[in-house]
Design a protein that fits this description.
single chain, mainly alpha, about 5% strand
């Protein structure tokens, strides 16, 4: 029975880490990106993901933790890709050129 308890504690920890990462990502995107992506507003996602983190930390009820996991998965699968698309690829990411770009611009083969 201790192996099953250890597995469940690792599962609870993984759900907590995912919820915290989703909450941090939700904080980092701008409010207008949520409107441009036609998703719920930033406050809604901060409340939902904040509740998911709080439930994972404070309430050891699997049903509530699974509801928080569903909200976290929806954020990662639906909201975050839409936010990245409207905000130009996310925060802190540099645009890369094509594979033929040199240090002074594109290489055109000596043409």
């Amino acid at each position: 029975m201790t192996a099953f308890g250890g597995f469940l504690s690792l599962l609870y920890l993984a759900m907590l880490v995912l919820a915290v990462v989703a909450l941090v990502m939700a904080v980092l995107y701008r409010d207008d990106a949520y409107r441009a992506a036609d998703k719920q507003n930033k406050g809604f996602w901060l409340i939902i993901l904040g509740i998911a983190v709080a439930v994972n930390l404070l309430v050891p009820m699997l049903f509530l933790q699974l509801a928080g996991l569903v909200a976290t998965i929806v954020f990662f699968v639906d909201v975050r890709p839409a936010l990245r698309q409207v905000s130009g690829g996310g925060w802190g990411r540099r645009r890369r050129g094509s594979s033929s770009d040199g240090p002074y611009g594109p290489y055109n083969g000596g043409r």
